[in-house]
From TrEMBL:
It comes from Dendroctonus ponderosae. InterPro entries: Ncstrn_small, Nicastrin. The lineage of its organism: Eukaryota, Metazoa, Ecdysozoa, Arthropoda, Hexapoda. Its main location: membrane. Residues 38-206 form the Nicastrin small lobe domain. The keyword Protease does not apply. Pfam families: Ncstrn_small, Nicastrin. Keywords: Glycoprotein, Membrane, Notch signaling pathway, Signal, Transmembrane, Transmembrane helix. This is Nicastrin. Belongs to the nicastrin family.
Length: 508
């Protein structure tokens, strides 16, 4: 999502030893760096956030830092600025960025790497993600100490006044280190008088100021080649129903107008400060669990019996990181009678589904292997307590218990629906009780190794694996939804395919 929708930019990195004037010298002294990703610009109604280089690129003298002390040294003693510090990514924090922004020695960019670092956590999301769009009521929905995401620096929402790149390639990082050591790392007082190792960072983005300004500028037609300064953030939610929404033969069908709906929801995408992430724990664990529930329920309930009054909607919400835009749009449409499509009420083609028709909302959030699976719900609703007890009874895992967790609701699309109507019944399944277990939430490193994923390539997928865990969560959800739909316990033998849950393509 974040990549294609509002980014009009060029990304390039050059390592330069200058000054030079002959072309042939240029070839030997410039090195183009390929393995890097840039931080990019975004806008909301009132602010701009993220980064951009200067038009044509931002140039600065390399200062390779192994520690915060090296950085402080150049901020105090630098005489040949502007500088581009090269830092281990673990040092990237809101304090570092604010120190660099306000420094007297000019900083024209920042280059980050994870060279030989054993990163224990990294998240640039807020500590209370989505807070202003969450249900505001007592008990507070974000824990006071550290929040849901205690590792969060909040940098994802900061306006950074210089470009930042993250470098993947260790040999390119050491090339920069060597260049720094050879040309820059001595006699700091005379740096200004000699040839220095420098970097040019090019990630220029046209958009500035805020959404209104940027869209207005894009709409001004000044010549025959209109410039597009920014794109709106947006994409599509994806949904499907367990049973048809209509009854009767093809070309002669009637909408089913008196059904109830259970929603099973998850996120479809994620974001990151740098334009890359695998999104392994968020959203992939939840989305894979959702697809597994859907496949399992289809095997348990191949067709709706005449007695079945309840249908199941599977929904993957898009763009939830940014103000829950996916669920807000879906709720907006539902409230106005525009879901599933924009047909008038009582049309002969499809039923109109309103929020009141949703009797239960189950959200599959982050579901990596944890000590327990927590069923969060906001009120101490007795009915939800019973549903959580059904989940517990249907949990096939002997290792990871289900723990009902009333009066608690982590950031989730369910917040949007409860804000629309407090009487909607819903719960969120996640592997954390208070603080996220995921130490890399919405970051570049929310990857397969950090959730302990292993590809088995045909050999047996045993107990205790991520695949087994997600299959178990899906089984308990599918069986409990089956009971809701039919009013009876499931007696059949359907079980999820571990091979499908394990499919490597999810994580690549
Ligand atoms: C750095 O600056 C401080 C004071 O500004 C000075 O005392 C120190 O000698 C300088 N160090 C070097 C290596 O230039
Ligand atoms: C826009 O983003 C900034 C920075 O995160 C935030 O302070 C501000 O409240 C946001 N504005 C709106 C209207 O959401
Ligand atoms: C790293 O960079 C070097 C030099 O640019 C290049 O030869 C090598 O293929 C790169 N390695 C990877 C894994 O991309
Ligand atoms: C720069 O020089 C100092 C002092 O000689 C040394 O301790 C440090 O490791 C050097 N830095 C790099 C990145 O080579
Ligand atoms: C339904 O209508 C379409 C278009 O008129 C037609 O191609 C199709 O054969 C019809 N299906 C049946 C089962 O009559
Ligand atoms: C949704 O609920 C309304 C009001 O309870 C009802 O009239 C309508 O038939 C329901 N719609 C569907 C599609 O079941
Ligand atoms: C909220 O939902 C309840 C139960 O579905 C319904 O009776 C009520 O009218 C809804 N309230 C609003 C404001 O839509
Ligand atoms: C729990 O399961 C029982 C037995 O299958 C079923 O009758 C009941 O309706 C379920 N309760 C809830 C709240 O889902
Ligand atoms: C995942 O991130 C860690 C850093 O936390 C890194 O060491 C590891 O190589 C990454 N794994 C993959 C598969 O990218
Ligand atoms: C998976 O197993 C097949 C057959 O044994 C083998 O050819 C293939 O290289 C293996 N792939 C991986 C990624 O290990």
């Amino acid at each position: 999502m974040s990549k294609s929708h509002f980014a009009i930019y060029l990304v390039q990195l050059l390592l330069v030893v200058g000054p030079s004037d002959a072309d042939r010298i240029k070839d030997t002294m410039y090195m183009k760096i390929s393995g890097s990703v840039a931080c990019y610009r975004r806008m909301n109604a009132t602010h701009q956030i993220g980064c951009s280089s200067a038009r044509g690129g931002s140039v600065g003298v390399v200062h390779y830092c192994d520690s915060a002390t090296d950085l402080d040294f150049i901020l105090k003693n630098g005489s040949a600025g502007p500088y581009i510090p090269v830092l281990p990514i673990s040092l990237l924090s809101a304090e570092t960025v604010s120190k660099l922004s306000s420094s007297k020695v000019k900083i024209s960019g920042l280059l980050l790497h994870a060279n030989s670092e054993n990163l224990l956590q990294m998240s640039h999301e807020n500590q209370c993600p989505n807070d202003i769009f969450n249900v505001q009521q007592a008990p507070k929905t974000c824990p006071d100490s550290g929040g849901w995401n205690p590792w969060g620096t909040g940098l994802l929402y900061a306006d950074v006044p210089f470009p930042m790149f993250y470098m993947h390639n260790d040999s390119e990082v050491s090339a920069i280190r060597h260049c720094f050591q050879a040309f820059n790392n001595h006699s700091f007082a005379t740096q200004a008088a000699r040839s220095l190792c420098s970097l040019e960072l090019n990630a220029f983005m046209y958009g500035t100021t805020n959404t209104q300004t940027c869209i207005r500028r894009s709409n001004v037609v000044t010549n025959l080649n209109p410039v597009k300064f920014c794109d709106p953030l947006g994409d599509s939610n994806v949904w499907g129903a367990l049973f048809p929404l209509v009854t009767g033969e093809e070309n002669d069908s009637q909408p089913i107008r008196d059904a109830k709906y259970i929603v099973v929801a998850a996120r479809l995408d994620t974001t990151s400060l740098f334009e890359e992430t695998a999104g392994a724990e968020s959203p992939i664990t939840g989305a894979v669990a959702l697809l597994t529930v859907a496949k399992l329920l289809k095997e348990m309930l191949p067709a709706a019996a005449a007695s079945v009054q309840t249908n199941v909607l599977f929904i993957l919400f898009n763009g939830e990181t940014y103000d829950y835009i996916g669920s807000q749009r879906l709720l907006y449409d539902m409230e106005r009678g525009h879901f599933p499509t924009d047909l008038p009420p009582n049309n002969p083609i499809l039923p109109t589904i309103y929020p009141e028709n949703v009797t239960l909302f189950i959200e599959l959030s982050q579901l990596g292997v944890g000590e327990a699976t927590y069923a969060h719900y906001l009120s101490a609703d007795a009915w939800l307590g019973k549903f959580a007890a059904n989940l517990t009874r249907n949990n096939p895992s002997t290792v990871v218990p289900l723990k009902p967790t009333p009066d608690s609701l982590p950031p989730s699309s369910l917040h949007t629906f409860i804000r629309g109507n407090t009487s909607i019944r819903g719960l969120v399944l996640a592997n954390h009780q208070t603080a996220y277990q995921n130490r890399f939430y919405n970051s570049l490193f929310d990857n397969s190794s950090n959730i302990g994923y292993r590809y088995y390539n045909g050999s047996e997928i045993g107990a205790g694996t991520l695949q087994r865990h997600i299959a178990d969560v899906a089984t308990m959800v599918a069986k409990s939804v089956f009971e809701e739909v039919t009013g009876q316990a499931y007696q059949g033998g359907a079980s999820p395919s571990l091979l499908l849950v394990s499919d490597r393509d999810w994580l690549e």
